[in-house]
Design goal:
By secondary structure, this protein is α+β, with helices and mostly antiparallel strands. The protein is about 25% helix and about 40% strand. The protein is built from 3 helices and 19 strands. A hairpin with a 2-residue loop joins strand 15 and strand 16. Helix 2 packs antiparallel against helix 3.
Length: about 350
């Protein structure tokens, strides 16, 4: 019986030793089967909101303010009268010029009749015609100055703060108020020069303000024609619908821009890519061993990278234990991720 017991013990130790030797030297790893999926080349930058149209309203002539016809912060329509400067003196001048023009016109007609009858010389008629033209031009200048006594809204928009009062004297180029068209809005932003060829009109942008989680969508409509040599960036503008007027000019914004989208790409976790002097590589499972595959990468995100060369759908990619692996190392897949 003792002999049988010793033989039995010896058999059990042999089986355990065989199991250990079968897994000895294998590196335990986690792997995944590669499946094509979409990836986007998205960059995030910052920008500044601009009004669609913005103008500073300033008088073109000096004078006393006779009337102010807008409220600060109100909406006005194109062509609406905003401010009126005293025009009584100009009206009097215009009345005088019209009287002078009437006299000069009558004189020119009389001299023309005499010239046609050869009663006066050509030179005498030309002086009368020239005098009429001078008075007509002076009348037109007065009419032009009279028109400048009114400031009207050049487009529909929101009025800003007022900087003059009724009855005050204003000089030419003095700021009266501002006018801004805020629907739609514009956002101006810059991206690094390496993206210059990918940045095009028609691209969609996503906008966020401050800590707000609300997103506003817009479209790039203009790209600068040159790169800023001081910052090595290229500037662009996008238009954002703003019907509720929630966006304000001058606000700081975070801008998200998708430069490229690949619908069926080989996408793997970033940590699976191993940098080398000659490039980059990954390990795949090949008949119980790790096989090193040189790869070329494309789009990178925070956690993923696109592989443009080296991998194919249904390859089994090794994700963990990479520092312990060499080409041909035996491996044991302990966990196979579905994605």
């Amino acid at each position: 019986m003792l002999g049988a017991f010793l033989i039995g013990c010896s058999g059990e130790k042999g089986q355990a030793s065989s199991r250990k030797s079968g897994s000895a030297g294998k590196v335990p790893v986690t792997a995944m089967v590669i499946k094509p999926q979409a990836i986007e080349n998205t960059i995030v930058t910052t920008g500044t909101l601009l009004a669609n149209e913005e103008v500073e309203l300033r008088p073109e002539i000096s004078g006393r303010v006779m009337g102010i016809y807008f409220q600060e912060g109100s909406w006005v329509s194109k062509g609406a009268l905003m401010l009126k400067i005293d025009d009584s003196e100009l009206k009097a001048q215009l009345k005088g010029k019209r009287a002078e023009e009437k006299l000069a016109s009558d004189e020119e007609a009389r001299r023309r009749t005499l010239f046609e009858n050869q009663s006066i010389s050509r030179e005498e008629y030309d002086r009368a015609a020239y005098a009429l033209k001078i008075i007509q031009s002076e009348r037109e200048v007065t009419e032009s100055r009279l028109a400048k006594t009114e400031i009207v809204a050049p487009f529909d928009g929101m009025v800003g703060l007022r900087y003059v009062s009724s009855g005050s004297n204003v000089s030419s180029n003095m700021l009266v108020t501002t006018l801004q068209d805020t629907d739609p809005m514009k956002v101006e932003f810059s991206v690094p020069e390496k993206y210059a060829k990918q940045l095009k009109s028609g691209m969609e942008v996503i906008l966020q303000l401050g800590d707000s989680q609300k997103k506003y969508r817009g479209t790039v409509f203009a790209v600068e024609s040159k790169i800023d040599i001081s910052t090595r960036t290229i500037k662009a503008r996008a238009r954002i619908p703003n019907p509720a007027r929630e966006l304000m000019p001058g606000a700081f914004a975070k801008v998200e821009l998708t430069l490229e989208r690949v619908p069926q790409a080989i996408v793997i976790p970033s940590q699976a890519v191993i940098p080398e002097l000659s490039g980059e590589k990954v390990f795949i499972y090949n008949n119980g061993t790790a096989k090193a595959i040189p790869v070329k990468v494309g789009i990178r995100t925070e956690s993923q990278v696109q592989i443009t060369e080296g991998l194919h759908p249904q390859d089994t990619l090794v994700l963990t234990g990479l520092l312990q692996l060499a080409d041909g190392s035996p491996i044991d897949i302990r966990h196979l991720q579905s994605e």
